[in-house]
C-alpha cells in the first residue's frame, strides 16, 4: 500500500477504508524557489555549536522558510504532517542565524537603532548629582594624605605649592579634553570607550585590565585605609596605629559600601550630598583656622620657601603623582554618561563648576597646613589634619578626625559606584566575562561588577603603605590618560566631520599630551620598582587578550564552563544581561 494514512476523529468513513483511517494522496511537490543569497552570522559569544550542528540549524532554517512560502500556494490540509519548529526553536534559529547586512563605517559616537537596550542603566543623574559625584570623588582622603608626599618629593614649601597649583591646572585642561570626548562619544566607560574608539580592541583591553587589577582596587584600598586610620587615630593619640585594626575597619567599609551600591544608586547619590557637606566643612575649618593663624603674623614657614627644592626632574614628576591622586576623579563622571540626564549639557557644566572650586580649596588648604605646621611636623605626621587640629583646636580637636573620616568614607562610596561601570561596560563589549555585564532586575545596578571589584579591593589591603599604593595608581592613571588624549587627536584626524558638541582648541590636547608624557616617562629611573610593577601587570594583559578575547574557537569544555558561570551568576544575583 503506497498511500500514507493518518487517524482523523469525526471523519466520515469510506467503504474501502479501515475504521477511523483516511487515505491521503501525497501532495504535489511545490516547485523549488530560488534561495536568496544570504550570509549568516553565527554569534560566538552566545552560541557554541559544532560544524555538524550548524549545518543542521541551517537546513532547519531553510525548511522553515520554504514551508512559510509554500503555504501561500498549496493546501496545507492535504499535506502530510511534518515536524514544525516551535516558537522557541524559531526564536533560537533567528538569533543563531541572523542575516548580516553590510554596515557603513560610522564615527564612534553615533549609535544605530539596533543598539538600543531594553534592560539598561537608568538616567537618574542631573547636574547637581554630577557636581556632587565629581566633588565626592576628588575631595576625599587625598587632601588629608597627599600634602606629605608632595612636600617630601619637592623638598620645599614653595615648590610644593607650585605643584598643587599645576596639578589643578592640569586637571582643568584635562577636563576640557574629556568634555569633548564625553560629548562626542556619549557612552559609559570613560577612557575605555575612548581608547577603544581610537585605537581598537587590544589597547582598550589593556586599559581595562590595568584599571581593574591596579588602579581601581588600589584607589579603593587607599580611601578605605585613610578612613580607618582617621577613625582609630583618636584612640591611639601617642602610639602607632595597629595594622590589623586598620585593615579590619577598612575591609568592613569596603564591604558595606559595596552592598549599598548594589542596593540602590539613588540612595548612594543622595548620600553624596551629605558627604560633600562634611568634606567642605572639614576643609573650611582647616582653611579658616589657618588663615586666622596666618593673619596673626605666623609666617615663618613661608620665609625662604624655595630653599631645599629638589633639582631632580624625576622626583618632581613623582611629587605630581601625590598631587594628581588628590585630584583624581575629574574624569570619573564620564564613566556614567549613560546614567546622566542630558549629558551634552550637564557633563561639561559639572566639570566647569567642580574643577576651579576644587583647585582653589586645595591650594588654600595647603597654605593653611603650612601656616600652622612646619615642614618637619608635616613629614612626621601620619594624619596631618589631626595634628593640625591638635595644634590649634585643643579639646575640640576630636571634630576633625570625624569629619575627615566621613570625607574619606564618602569618597570611597562614590568611587566604588563609578568604577564598577568601567568593569560593566568592558564585559558588555566582550572584553571581560559575560557574568560581569549583568544588571540586577530589581535594583538596576551592575551587582556582579560591584562585588568583583570589592573583592579585588580587599586583596590590596594586605599592605598599609598608602604612598606606595599611590605611586602604583597614579602611574597607571597617567599612562592611560595619555592614551585617551592621543585617541582624541587621532579621531580629530580620522573623523574630521564627527559631531562634536564641545570642541577645544587643538593646542589644549597637544599640551596636555606632553605633560602626561613627562609624568609617565621621567619617574622610570626614580621609582623603578613601582613603575616596573605597573608595566608588568599591564603587559600581562597582552597574552590574556589573545587567550580570552581574540581566540574565539575555544574548546567546548571552556565555553560550557563560561556559560554555566554566567547562568550561576544570573541565578545568584537575580540579574540579566542588557538586551
From TrEMBL:
Residues 71-116 are annotated as: Disordered. Gene3D superfamilies: Amino acid/polyamine transporter I. Keywords: Cell membrane, Membrane, Transmembrane, Transmembrane helix, Transport. It is a multi-pass membrane protein. It comes from Scylla paramamosain (Mud crab). GO terms for molecular function: L-amino acid transmembrane transporter activity. It comes from the Eukaryota. This is Y+L amino acid transporter 2.
